[in-house]
Design goal:
The protein is an alpha+beta fold. The protein is built from two helices and three strands. The protein has helices at 2-10, 54-63; strands spanning 29-33, 45-49, 67-72. The protein has a three-stranded antiparallel beta sheet, with helices on one face. The structure holds zinc ion. Zinc ion binds next to loops.
Length: 81
């Protein structure tokens, strides 16, 4: 059954998926942001984004003044999330 193969392929590197609503594309960028009203200054919230959604997700938090930086997903650390 193809379902078995699909489930197996989700683990590992493939678990970086774009955070945009309805998008299941592999994420290549990480939008790092912080809402000072909700989070401690050292907290780094991360939205994963594919090439197509990187700009719209980054613009969304940048407009609110929450954007810290956009980095490649490979650059994320365990402190991000
Ligand atoms: Zn996307």
């Amino acid at each position: 059954m193809s379902d078995v193969l699909g489930a197996a392929s989700v683990s590992g590197a493939a678990d970086h998926v774009c955070s945009a609503k309805g998008c299941g594309a592999p994420a290549r960028h990480a939008v790092v942001w912080n809402n000072p009203k909700l989070h401690k200054p050292e907290r780094r919230k991360v939205w994963l984004a594919c090439d197509e959604h990187e700009k719209s997700l980054a613009d969304f938090v940048a407009m609110r003044g929450f954007l810290i930086e956009v980095v490649p997903v490979e650059a994320l650390t365990d402190a991000d999330g």
